[in-house]
Amino acid sequence: MYQQMIFVNLPVSDVDTSKKFFTELGYTINPQFSTDDCACVVISDTIVAMMLGKERYADFTTKRIADATTTSEVLLCLSAESREKVDELVDRAIAAGGSATGQTQDQGFMYGRAFDDPDGHTWEVMWMDPAAVQG
Fold first, then answer.
1. Per-residue pLDDT tens over the stretch 47-84
2. Which of 7, 20, 37, 133 could form a disulfide with 53 if both were Cys (CB 3.0 to 4.6 A apart)?
3. What is the value of pTM for the model shown?
4. Angle at 78 (CA atoms; ends 50, 34), nearest 5 degrees
């Protein structure tokens, strides 16, 4: 059965910094699709983040590239298998050079935290109780 994938393309100031940051979070870099100006970060079998140097990113758009440290264009949200995994990933992101952002969201059946990567892109990480989803 076909599984649709998502390729998130983000402009970054330094591709090597992005590679280091995301590998410290436990993700891998696919060398087949990575170059000096692009890092292919494999998040899961169906989610890939393409961290493109700003000049390379500009090859794909005629629009002005947003500065994610001062402007929000997108909020990226990753699911986690438990509350503990939410904390683990966000804590690793902070230790790797990211920064905590926003407030911890704890609604009992749903729990989430967020971090900004070194370029200011906001990544939310959330867990939802499967029983709450089913009924």
1. 999 999 999 999 999 999 999 999 998 999 999 999 99
2. 37
3. 0.90
4. 15
